[in-house]
Amino acid sequence: MSEEPNKPEQQETEEAKKTAFQSLRSLIDSVWVLLKSTLDIKEGAANPTDTIAGIHRDIDFKGYNLWILIFSIFIASIGLNTNSTAVVIGAMLISPLMGPIIGIGLSVGTNDWTTLKRSLKSLAIATLFSIITSTIYFSITPLSDATSELLNRTRPIPLDIFIALFGGLAGIVAGSRKEKTNVIPGVAIATALMPPLCTAGYGLATGQFNYFFGAFYLFLINSIFISIATYAVVRFLKYPLKEFVDPVKEKKAKRYTYAFILIVIVPSAFTFYNIIQETLFDRNANRFISEVVKHEGSRIRSKELVYNKDSISEIVLDIGGEAIPEVLQKDWANKLGEYGLNKTSLLFINDGFGKADDEAFDQMVKENYDNIKSIASKNELLNQYKNDLEKAERQIQQIKGDTIPIGKVCNELKIQYEGEIQQLTYSNAIIVDFFYTDSIKGFEKDTIPTFFVKWRADISSEEQQAKSAKLEKLLKVRLNLSEIRLSSY
Q1: Could you read off the pLDDT of 256-304 as tens digits, one per residue?
Q2: Angle, helices 113-140/209-236, rounded to nearest 10 degrees
Q3: CATH of the domain at 152
Q4: CA angle at 24 for the pair 21 and 29, rounded to the nearest 5°
Q5: Do 146 and 237 fall within a single domain?
Q6: Burial group, residue 164, by CB count within 10 angstroms (0-12, 13-18, 19+)
Q7: Residues 221, 271: contact at Cβ < 8 Å?
Q8: Range of the structural domain that residue 423 is part of
Q9: Is residue 230 located within the same domain as residue 85?
């Protein structure tokens, strides 16, 4: 009798659970519909035929397109040579290198063998002219040092692969839209296709072939992953595949297409694996050094991490201060396996200064500081002697001015100027410099021979200025004075 009243409650509970489940399912469906519509890559996509035609237009390298590439390569080479990031970015905005690379991905994604051959041919032409242009530039430029902008392009890292992959995805998605955007120039900058080619030219011009192969390989990796990203989007958007009238040709084209995909992906996979291994080695080695290599009285002045995929890698430490005991070195080496460094050797370089290293270094710095301070003091003393000498010369000139043969000078001027001078006044003027004062000595004073000339009234002011300038030079020579003052009225 007691169980019957519970049945309505159970039914209400089941109905509440059912209602809650339906509400949750409705919410999940609504969120899924929202996400699907928001992230729909096909939304706003252009007609595949229009997109393919647009990509085809940018594939070929000939005429003006090739000259634009050559000019942009020169600009990029100059930017790399002068370590100017802004110039390199500007060159990448100009470069049309993306065209054939996207064309390769499109042709593979649509089984278009003709377009694939055309794209590969254009990419080969663009690459060849780019390397030749940069080689010519770096062969004639007087700046031959490898800048950081050049060195950064000599070998790929895993992040470069991801940048090329996601950059290629952004490029083809933007290229497939009805409304064109400025994404393609941004992709050209982010994936940095041109700088590696310029660096390859630098390697050829300077005979550093490791730079050439490293930079060219970086360019190849970027091109491959941009093409792979294009291929993936083209297949996802279901672009129409190339149809063949002859079934034999169709099978042949597919075999070539799949072979090309394997040729592209397999080496890239090995490269990616090796780069990841080297990155892990660097990370583990740095962690090992920071956590294990510690010894009182010693310090790590520099380190070199040498990764060898086929042999023993090396951690080379330049130690300053007290030498590391051999027992401690063996103990540290035994801990390499704990950090994933099983095939790694630990090497030490010590200069033999021992405990006195830091003290000797500090003493050397102190001695150099004292020498610099002594030289500065001597320079100050020399400047003081120079000032005293100049004052003595002015005093000599003053004495000479006091004994100027004014009568002889007037007779000479009377002959030379033939009545143009009506009156000549001479005195030693005391000049006080208000811009220079000394708290002890006061104002700077000097005595300078001063002449006042009254010219004939019919002589114009312009002529008076010219004649006065000439007269001043004459008086300096005749009286052997370096400085006089002359005024006319």
Answers
A1: 767 766 765 676 677 677 878 888 898 999 999 989 888 887 888 888 8
A2: 150
A3: 1.20.1080.10
A4: 125
A5: yes
A6: buried
A7: yes
A8: 404-488
A9: yes
Residues 365-374: pLDDT tens digits? 566 666 666 6
Residues 96 and 69 sit within 8 Å (Cβ to Cβ): yes
Tell me the one-letter amino acid at 467. Answer: K
Q: Could you give the angle at the alpha carbon of 128 between the alpha carbons of 124 and 133, nearest 5°?
A: 150
Structure tokens that stand for 377 in this block: 């003091």
Q: Are 231 and 108 in contact (CB under 8 A)?
A: yes
Task: At 8, list the tokens.
Answer: 């309505």
CA dist 119 and 231 (Å) reads 14
Are 242 and 111 in contact, with CB atoms under 8 Å apart? yes
CATH number at 422 reads 3.30.70
Nearest alpha carbon to residue 326 among 345, 348, 344, 304: 348
Helix, strand or coil for residue 292? coil
CA–chain centroid gap for 244, Å, is: 50
Name the domain boundary from 213, 242, 271.
242
CB environment 434-452: b (16+ within 10 A), e (fewer) = eeeeeeeeeeeeebbbbbe
Residue 71 burial by CB count (10 A; 0-12/13-18/19+): exposed, middle or buried?
A: middle
Q: pTM for the whole thing?
A: 0.55
